[in-house]
Amino acid sequence: MIKRVNKAKVLKKSQNFAVSLFRYGLIICLMYMIMYPLLRMIAEAIVHPHVLGSVGSLWIPAIATTDNFVVAWHVMNYLPSLGFTTMVMTVMMLLQILNASLAGYAFARLRFRGMNFLFALVIVGIVVPNQVLFLPQSLMFRHYDIFGVLARIEGTGFANALNAVRIPIVDWHPFAWLANGPWNMMGDARTMFTMAGLGQGLAGGIFIYIFRQFFRGLPKELEEAAYVDGAGVLRTFFTIAMPMSKPAILTVGTLSFIWNWNDSFFQQIFDPRHLYMRMRIQHLNSPSAGGTTVMQQAINQVMVNMPDDIVTLTTPIYDASIINVANLLSILPLIVLFLLIQRQFVEGVERSGIVG
User: Fold this and answer.
1) DSSP 276
2) 70-84, 140-154, 164-178, 190-204: least confidently modelled range
3) How many other CB atoms are there within 10 angstroms of residue 112's CB atom?
4) pTM
């Protein structure tokens, strides 16, 4: 009898060990598949230019160096690009949070005619690719008008009166932008801000859906008590619903910031300035009309600002290596951001209706 019990225990332990071995093996394989691109970028970033492409430097470089980071830092004009990109993405993130939370609360709590049809349009907007909408959007922002008002007052006496308003000290005409007809907003961050604030930004429909699912899961008793005390819809939203929706705000804010940071489609169409990190890298990676590549031209321009012992080459593989380091520097702020908020972000995803 004892032998049978021991045999059963050994068999059970063996089964548990086999299951655990399979589980950990699967996790390690998945982690390797996910981390492989980042690990390759790091391994290639520290390879000395003289041993680029050698078989002995695929993972562990024969000669390690940080010269590539110095070159990429200067050709990207890193700190100004980082500051400008962070500023623009933060404003877009806040606008998308405000827009999506208001729309999500309306769909979750208010009852009005056509609500289901409008929410169906939101869902359709999720699946429609951005490439389908960029042409009418670009035409709209090239001649942007507010209900046709600017076109109507252009050339009238009222427009002349607006244009005549002047602050003498700084010689500034504060209302000239209203008097000169429709605006051409292409090539300006205002285009990105307008799209984010009006729900036309990247993944706007997904963010509305996240807030709707979260608000539907909140208890109604607090909001009903606020209504009894005389609070209106907006006051209830800002004083009751929004303070309780921190997980959804964190989830939408993080996704909005990261997705807009990595996006190059909207930036290339509406504001293709090289101040954005993605636009700068795309410009450095573009072919040149002359005999010198864009990357080599950029390196020659910043060479005077780099230490004398920095090693640079004029080969295509070296240009690709600097582009690789530039991509690594561009995602470095996102990695730091995720490490700082990973626990709160995971909790927010679990509570905001994305999963489950």
Assistant:
1) S
2) 164-178
3) 8
4) 0.82
